[in-house]
Automatic annotation (TrEMBL), chain A:
Keywords carried by this UniProt record: Amino-acid transport, ATP-binding, Nucleotide-binding, Transport
Domain ABC transporter as annotated: residue spans: 7-239
Name under which the protein is recorded: ABC transporter ATP-binding protein
Gene Ontology MF, one: ATP binding
InterPro entries: AAA+_ATPase (IPR003593), ABC_branched_ATPase_LivF/BraG (IPR030660), ABC_transporter-like_ATP-bd (IPR003439), ABC_transporter-like_CS (IPR017871), BCAA_Transport_ATP-bd_LivF (IPR052156), P-loop_NTPase (IPR027417)
Listed GO biological process terms: L-amino acid transport
Pfam families: ABC_tran
Assigned protein family: Belongs to the ABC transporter superfamily.
Transmembrane regions listed in the UniProt entry: none
UniProtKB/TrEMBL annotation, chain B:
UniProt membrane topology term: Multi-pass membrane protein
UniProt keyword Transmembrane helix, yes or no: yes
Protein source organism: Streptomyces sulfonofaciens
InterPro entries: ABC_transp_permease, BCAA_transport_permease
Top-level division of the source organism's lineage: Bacteria
Pfam families in the record: BPD_transp_2
One GO CC annotation: plasma membrane
Protein keywords: Amino-acid transport, Cell inner membrane, Cell membrane, Membrane, Transmembrane, Transmembrane helix, Transport
UniProt-annotated location(s): Cell membrane
Similarity annotation: Belongs to the binding-protein-dependent transport system permease family. LivHM subfamily.
Full protein name: Branched-chain amino acid ABC transporter permease
One GO-annotated biological process of the protein: L-isoleucine import across plasma membrane
GO terms assigned for molecular function: L-isoleucine transmembrane transporter activity; L-leucine transmembrane transporter activity; L-phenylalanine transmembrane transporter activity; L-valine transmembrane transporter activity
Bilayer-crossing regions: 12-35, 42-58, 64-86, 98-121, 141-166, 196-217, 237-259, 280-296
Amino acid sequence: MTAPALLDVRDLRVAYGKIEAVKGISFSVAAGEVVTLIGTNGAGKTTTLRTLSGLLKPRSGSIVFNGEPIRRLRPDEIVARGLAHSPEGRHIFPRMTIEENLLLGAFLRRDKSGIADDVQRAYDLFPILGERRKQAAGTLSGGEQQMLAMGRALMSRPKLLMLDEPSMGLSPIMMQKIMATIRELSSEGITILLIEQNAQAALSLADHGHVMEIGTIAISGTGQDLLHDESVRKAYLGED
Amino acid sequence: MHALPQQLANGLFLGSMYGLIAIGYTMVYGIVQLINFAHGEIFMTGGFGALTVYVYVLPDGVSMWVAVPLMIVGGGLVAVLVAIGAERFAYRPLRGAPRLAPLITAIGLSLALQQLVFNLYPNAKSAISFPGLPFGPYHLAGIRIQAGDIFLLVAAPLCMAALAFFTKTSRTGRAMQATAQDPDTAQLMGINTNKIIVIAFAIGGFFAAIAGVAYGFKIGSVSYDMGFQAGLKAFTAAVLGGIGNIYGAMLGGVVLGLAEAVATAYISDIPGMQQLGGQAWAAVWAFVLLILVLLFRPQGLLGERVADRA
């Protein structure tokens, strides 16, 4: 934990009009880690991620990524610095093919052969995408769309990959597959910030976790600590 | 005198002009969901820009073969600057505001541009005559084709093909498609959507300018209020073809032009409708067609259902 953090968030506040959705949170992500934000709907997790990627502008606080303040940058400038965001609800481009979706993920890159290698890598990671590369992305199932969204986010070769609810609406088998992929990406050295409602799955693969409650971080700890924490188990893991 | 081939040809020429203007409506709508009601005036400033180049910049007696390209450049430059200026100073500050705000701004901008030209451009209080092309009219199988029509016949398909090629194959074109489908996610791909919006306004402005030059050649004059009717028709064409779809805009323009030409020529032959014929009713038939399409195919001829945006 002495290594400088890849991402450092201090006293972040984000509001929609008069309603404050994120009320001064601080956390950091070290290079190589998997960090998860868990919590119920409306806790401010998605708002936090959308602020980190520049889609929302914070009211106050600081966001330092790779040693550089990024709070005032546009989303495309933030992507250029190595922060990729796979949004909640997947948001693939439905009328484009799978391959076109992947290529858009590499929009800021100019190295043609490197891009082709990474497209192939996405197909290796998710063979079903390779089989359907010329098919409109809107025709994929929910789980396949999630694979495409993750593959697309990886195409920018990010230093930090942010995943918002990758298991949302998926069958248990598909969810396991997505979680296994996250573990695999992590073992390849990709730093991951993961948002999940499935706290059990997220905490069991995270190095650190933060429990968000109505715009604040209520509890922080290692993934294992939180997994065994009495109050977390009661509130988020469905035990009494 | 109502020979069908002639009416169809007239409709095709007029429709190509509507289509060129309609592309500007449809591109801007596709990307920012804004009906730029000042687009008719961008078309008008394109015509005036070209006229200015001819009257005030080029020497007297210059060959039209030299003049026409320079008029297109001049008119295009003016229209593109007006379009980009409108985006930057009128619409961008209102992004995120309720939909009604930019719509009212667009109508206000439309009136402001008309009045600016009316009051400031020399002798613009009435129509100003536009230079003619030094060839035509031609007679082909009983169809009379004027020089202005030939200009449209060359310009419209050329513009359409160039735009299709650009959106399909270029990096910026793909970024445009992505921005139209999902602007937030496009930003997450690293696309600077502000830049894409400016490019959409600029392409729409340039095409409108070409239509403005064509209008000058075809009608023989330009006027400060020429963008009102033409803009409304082109907007109709864009909706008819399926707003947001560039091919739909061109198709909608041609269908509208044909419908208008045929209706004005033949409706009065229907017993009991004698008094509904003629040019005075052209706009009525255009809007009747629009209403019919909206009733039976609200997404337009080539439009996709809006639901797949969610």
